[in-house]
Amino acid sequence: MFLRFAAALAATCIALPLWAAEMGDDGLYKEPWMRDTFKDLREDLAEANAEGKRLVLFVEQRGCIYCHQMHEEVFSDAEVSDYIADNFYVVQINLHGDTEVTDFDGESLPEKAAAQKWRVLFTPNIVFLPEEVPEDATATEAAVAVMPGAFGKGTTLDMFTWVAEKRYELDNGEDFQRYHARRIQERADGATD
């Protein structure tokens, strides 16, 4: 009897993620690597640069089943979570929120107006920023990549890696689709980093 209980308990523990993201008062998931900032994007960019990390904006909304999927199935994976924590400075934006955001162009507006200005229609929407942003650019105009929607672990990790390694720079010759296809093949072949 005890052995069956122990086996069932072990199977349950193995099936569960190591941790589950907390839910904030705003109805959005809160990861330990998300930053609570004043949402002044120039200040956030300076902080990210000072830490040697890349600024990334996570636009999410309460009740989003795809946001739930990303937090519960992808960001709960230690490899993905650790990579993000080590390389990115993450600021969460609420698609329908009222917290003031100061965009790179100096305009201050509620999160929901900023999301509308950036033409964000779906969540999750992950906006990757460069280390330097021109004075008159908006967040989405300056973005080096945008990941609209929910993706699995491999695609998500590949996108974060592609940005961290600056593979978006044209002289590299490998756009994200080619990079991702190569990484899929390498994983299928059993290659490791």
TrEMBL record:
<dbReference type="InterPro" id="IPR041737">
    <property type="entry name" value="SoxW"/>
</dbReference>
<dbReference type="InterPro" id="IPR012336">
    <property type="entry name" value="Thioredoxin-like_fold"/>
</dbReference>
<feature type="signal peptide">
    <location>
        <begin position="1"/>
        <end position="20"/>
    </location>
</feature>
<dbReference type="InterPro" id="IPR036249">
    <property type="entry name" value="Thioredoxin-like_sf"/>
</dbReference>
<keyword id="KW-0732">Signal</keyword>
<dbReference type="Pfam" id="PF13098">
    <property type="entry name" value="Thioredoxin_2"/>
</dbReference>
<protein>
    <submittedName>
        <fullName>Thioredoxin-related protein</fullName>
    </submittedName>
</protein>
<feature type="domain" description="Thioredoxin-like fold">
    <location>
        <begin position="49"/>
        <end position="132"/>
    </location>
</feature>
